[in-house]
Every structure is written in C-alpha cells, then in structure tokens.
Write a structure and sequence with these properties.
Two copies of one chain form a homodimer. Chain A is α/β, with parallel strands linked by helices. Chain A folds into two domains: 108 residues, Urease, subunit C, domain 1, CATH 2.30.40.10; 289 residues, Metal-dependent hydrolases (TIM Barrel, Alpha-Beta Barrel). Chain A has 16 helices and 19 strands. In chain A, strands 2, 3, 4, 5, 7, 16, 17, 18 and 19 form a nine-stranded mixed beta sheet that branches. A four-stranded parallel beta sheet of chain A has the order 8-9-10-11. Chain A has a four-stranded parallel beta sheet with strand order 12-13-14-15. In chain A, helix 9 crosses helix 11 and helix 13 crosses helix 15. Chains A and B meet through helix 2, helix 3, helix 10, helix 12 and helix 15 of A and helix 2, helix 3, helix 10, helix 12 and helix 15 of B.
Chain lengths: 442, 442
Amino acid sequence: MQQADLILYPEWAFTAHPSNNSPYGDCLQKPGIAIQAGRIVDIADKAEIQTKWHSDHSEEHPGKVLLPGFVNAHCHAAMTLLRGIANDLPLMDWLEGHIWPAEGNHVDAEFVRDGSLLACAEMIRGGTTCFNDMYFFPEATIEAALAAGIRVSAGIIAIDFPSAYAQQPEQYLEQGLATLAEHKAHDRVKMMFAPHAPYTVGDPLFKSIIEADKAQRLGCHIHLHETAFEVSSAEQETGTRPFQRLLQLGLLNEQTVAVHMTQLNEQEIQQCGSLGINIAHCPESNLKLASGIAPIHALLSAGANVAIGTDGAASNNDLDMLSELRSASLLAKAQSQDATALSAAQTLQMATYNGAKALGWEAETGSIAIGKSADLQLIDLNRIETQPCYDPVAQVVYSASRDQITDVWCQGQQLMQERQLTTLNENELLATAQAWHEKIST
Amino acid sequence: MQQADLILYPEWAFTAHPSNNSPYGDCLQKPGIAIQAGRIVDIADKAEIQTKWHSDHSEEHPGKVLLPGFVNAHCHAAMTLLRGIANDLPLMDWLEGHIWPAEGNHVDAEFVRDGSLLACAEMIRGGTTCFNDMYFFPEATIEAALAAGIRVSAGIIAIDFPSAYAQQPEQYLEQGLATLAEHKAHDRVKMMFAPHAPYTVGDPLFKSIIEADKAQRLGCHIHLHETAFEVSSAEQETGTRPFQRLLQLGLLNEQTVAVHMTQLNEQEIQQCGSLGINIAHCPESNLKLASGIAPIHALLSAGANVAIGTDGAASNNDLDMLSELRSASLLAKAQSQDATALSAAQTLQMATYNGAKALGWEAETGSIAIGKSADLQLIDLNRIETQPCYDPVAQVVYSASRDQITDVWCQGQQLMQERQLTTLNENELLATAQAWHEKIST
C-alpha cells in the first residue's frame, strides 16, 4: 500500500482532461482520487484505489461531483470594492463618468490588497482556484492571492496615462518587472504583460512590451475589440482595425490572452485560429455593457483556444464562474442557432482546462490528471435544485448554483471546507468592505 | 397602537409598485412593513411604524432587502422530475426524441403531484410565491401548490392528441373545467385555458376554448412563436403565421399570456402592444434550445406587458427566477445595443408585478402595497458576494444568488425561515425524486 495525504471518493469526477473517450474530458462514476504532496497521484475506480492507496485522511462524498477548480481567465480583482457602483450604462459612460473618477480618488496599494482579498474570498466560494488579473499595484493582488492560497496570473499593467501606481508608460513596465523578479520563484504566481487596450496604449509602449517579452516570454493579456465603437473609431482615425494593428506590431500569438473580442470579422476569426490566440470570453460583462456577443462557436471551430472570465465585479457584477460558463453555453447556442453548440462538457472544459492553457499553466492546473496540482472543487448535487440527476455534468452547467460548491483545494491545501473558508476570515472581509463603502460613498 | 400579526424591519424594501417617484417601484430605506391577517396593512419609515403598530412578532433584518415574491409566468412544474434528462438538443429533437416518450411512459397524477411538490420546494427556496403552470393533471399541481402554500394559476391544458390525462380534445376542457369548479373558491388558486401551441391545437379546439371563455373569462396561456421553424412551417402549410391565425380566431387579448414569442415581426410587436397582450419571456429556455431571443425591449416600448418565466426544468434546467431575470436584463441590453435598457428596477418589476398582471392577479400579489397579500421574500445582501453594496436593487439583480434568499411568505404564512422550508419536507422530496429517477432511468 502506498501512502497518500488525502483520498477523495466523490460520487462522480469530471476530469475536463482530453482523453481517448472525449476531447472534453470524462465523467467517472464512483472514482477515487489520491493526492500526495499537493499533487494528484492516482485516479481510478474506488475499489482499485482502495487496494493501492492508504491515507489517514480519506473522505467519502456521496452525491457530489469533483471538478477541477475554475480558472477565471479575466478579472480585475481589486474592483470588487466598486461592485455595482454604476449600472445600466454603456462602456464609455461607465468608465469615464464613474469608474475612472472613483479609481482616481481611491486606488492605492491598500485598496488593491483589500479588494483582491474580497475577490479571492468570492472566487474560492465559487470554486475558482486560479485567476488572470489586470490592475494597478499587481504586487498587492499577488499578496492577496498568496494569503488566500489560490493561483494568480497577475498583469504587468501598462497604460499611457499616469495613475497612483505609475507616472510614465515605461515606469509601469519597470515596476511590474520588479514585482515579477520578487515573486517569480513562487509556484502559485505568474505574471503576463497587461497593456490595457489599443485605445489607451500607443505603439511605443506596445513595442517596449514586445522587446521586453523577447527575454521574458510572459505573453500578453489585453482588452481587444470589446465594443463596436472601439473598432469603428480606430478605423476612422487610423484606417486600421485594432486587431490588425496589434497583428502588424507582432503582439498576437499563442501566448496572447485577448479579452472580450465581441467584434470580429470572418478574417479575424480565422486569424485567431491560425495564430492560436487565447480568447477570454466574458459574456455577462459584454451583455451588461451592451458591447456584443463574442462569436465563440466560430472561434472554437477556427481553432482558437476559448477560456471564460468574469471580468471585474464593477461591470459584471460578480465573480461567479458557474453562472458565467452557463451564460457562455446558452449564448453560444442562441448565437449559432444550434442547440448542440457548446455542450455541457465542452463548456466546463472552457472554464477550467482552456483557462489554464490560455495562461500557459495547463501542465499544472485546469484538469484532473495524474501529476497535476490538486486544484479541485466539490459540488453537491443532492439538493432540491439539482434532483433528480440524470447527468451530473449537465446538472453542474445548467442547474447548479455556486452555493452548492462545498469544498475547494489548491495544491492540495483545503481553502474551503463545507462552505467555510480556511485561509480567509469572512467577517473581517465584510467589515473591510463596509469601511471602503463608507469611504468611497462620501 | 394598532395590533399587527407581524412587523418586518428590513434594511431596505423594494416595492415593485408603480409610484409617483418611479413607474417601477421605490427602494425604501429602513422601512417597517406591518402585516395583519395575511395582508400588508402599513408601509412607512421604521420610526413611524413603531409609533403606530404593535406586534408580539416583529423582526429586525439588518442587511436584508424585502421584495415581493417572484411570479413565475410560465412553468411546467411537474417536469422537474425530467430535469436535465436531455440536453444540447434543438426543440423538436428534444420534444419528440426524449420528452414526449418519457412523458408517454410515466406521466400520471402521481408523477404530476410529486414533480410539482419538488418544483414548489425549489420555487419557494428561490423566492417564488406564485406560478403560472401548464401540464397534464392540473388538479395534482393544484394539490401540490396548496400543500406548499404558494399561489398557482393552473392551466386547463388542451391538445389535439390523446394522453394519459384525456383521450379527446373536448375531454381536456371538460376535465379542466371540473377541476376549476372544485377549486375556484380557494383564493390561492386560479385557472387559465392552456392550449399547448398552434402546432398541436387545431381550430375546432381553439373555437371551443373561445366559446367556453365567454362565460368563464379565464384568459388563455399558450406557447407562441417559440421557434423560427414553428412560424415558417405554418406559413408554408397554411400561408398564415401562427400569431395572425390566433388573432383572426379572436384568441389574443389582454387576458392572453403568450409564451416565448422569440419570432415577431414589427407589425406583430405593435399588435402585442395595442392588444395589451401579456408576454411570458423565458430567456434561458429560449437560449438553451437555440430558439432565439424575444424582442423584449421593443415589446415593452410598444406597450405589451412583459413578465418572466423559467419554463420547465426539463428545458431550462432550473426554476431560478433570480437567474432568469438577470438573463432577461442582460440579454435585452445586448439585443437592443443599449446598456440602459431594462434597468435593475424595471427587471425586478417584470419578475413580480408584471407577472401578477399577466395572470390578472395584480390586485392581490406582485408588489409591496397596502391592502395586498403579504407575498414577500427577504434577500440577505450582507454576504461576500454582494458587498460592498452601493445600490441594493442593482445588487439583487446583478450580483445576488438564490441561496441569499432567506425567508419567504405567502398570504402572511411563512414558507421558508432562514433557508428552512416550513410546509414541505426536503428529505422526503429528495427521496421521492430519487425513486422517480430510478423508475424513469430503467
């Protein structure tokens, strides 16, 4: 008998890992999953696991399905402190009239740390174990993620305008690279270059990023073709669509996470596929700001890697990956006029494995596979809302709510146990949110 | 001091009742709501209520918002027993290949009662206090709703095909009217004629319904223009669109609840407005079956009354009104390319007051107003997922999940208290669902 730190016996496990049976992953019945030193060391039938592995800590989870932790492919965690501060407005009114002024008055390292801690709590309670972030003071977001115990891909934010974080374009890169140097040894932390958007970043700063990335190979996380206005105004001013401008600059490749992408012509969809670009699809934010609906089904058919992100809580207004992936699946069916588009299994894979792949982290996280980090969540389907259960994968995607997520692990560390957070203190976070509310409202 | 059965002191109350301040309702800060003999007898500032009313049962609810109970404007409650039995399929494949065969094998009065009880439990847990149903054996659905303590508008189902419930078209009406006669004295029960759809009901049966409704004045609940195929095949076979056919028959008026309506031309949208037709918008079911997106913003502008329904759990796959109304708001913004479309307050009113109006029940339920039935729900916003809270109405619509609904009353009777059902036994319902699962799967 080999010794494991933890053995889980759920009713089902959905791997989200490509297999001979399905490119989207297998749904295993009555499996056992053995975990040792933070990694998945065996996956087999319960009976087989019981003959091979022993642990002082093995858990039976009847009625529950084990899934990989969600990978939130696009987030502004700190903006959770601005949750719902302005609603029912188009993107530019929302940004210029509300978000940028509030940020100008309040954003500092403390705001980012406190907002990111609140975001991490919400994400863990929603089954997310990894997020791709873009915000000022990324060192504070990393600090929060480390305290919370989840993975973060933090952005080396870059924008042509001064902020409380940096005054000059080049200073954004310098500070971000200093943060990277400080944290790169930590195996739960990554960083990507994160130029805000084509309309806030000029060619010189893009060229500096491309130059710096020749050495770093971090890849690039950017808002792109979010709205029709973004595309049409660039075309009017320069004669070039932003996607083509970035392509010509050499910014778009298989290490790019292009966020939103609601406005794409057929040529651009094909280019996304041939270049292997990663799309961070944020359907609820795009709907709420009336930005449009990204052509996900066409992008997947073209060969692009499509992941799912919540965007920030100031626009969405939550960090609920389960709701977001359901919206992604339902919208893709309507948009493609094909009810078979984005099956439940494929959608779950987008919210897990595809997200990890977008961040270059698929060797570590995003699916249940031997050798990978134990980044896991349990969802209880033995509830009024998900019974009877003919198909656990469909039940997760189309019926379950995030409160049915009972337990979450990252690197084998349990971050939530029967709905109780282990690394973060909910009451403290609520009090901190309340204090920021009072400060920001006055 | 006047005596009340119950006084509630929530942090906020959103009335959903048209007022001089807003057609969509007011958000009251620190109000008191006095309830006597199942009715709301006073609404005022907390301090004023405290000087006027005394009760042995008054409750403080800091951090919570009081809302009218949701009105689910279209449901097939019994189909909860078929939740998720077939997914990722277009409407006719789903109906003909899966749903109708399963129904043929299993539907009887016991199936309908058990499925409806499970549905009522899910609806109460999701803040719904009234639902508009269409299914076989409506007497069993009424029995379940009475046991659960919520309001039901049950359908006098009519279809040209035989079923376990009735053999002949006219028999459907006779049985339904007998059920009506039995239950019409109960003030939590209504019935409407419920011809299934234009493609399953011929003109003779429609004419019988119109004739019978001259005496009854029940109104008519019908699936209409759900898919492009429904409309195009009728046009090919008869030269007439189903909407125009029903209009010519005289079936469409301010007592009609037309469900789905994803395929409407400009003339039909205007006719919906001028006739005062009620639309039961079921956005998630329409997306999932790739049926389309109803032009809600245009229908509202034309003057139609738009309510929100979940459809049955076999297609949706849940009865979650909070998720459904969020989808309605987000989709309307994207579809109309206007982020200001369907504000949070207007959307909440659609899910409450407009639903009651569609059922002819707005004098009794659907808003918080003096004299109305105490059909209420409390939502706790003091959670990680909804903090900080700048705007409680936006927070309910765009951030909260149904598990934050803590307490529900119908006619002043408490149906859920701190997430515990009072009229139904969850464990018994889960066991019953499991038994049906085994029977239906074999």
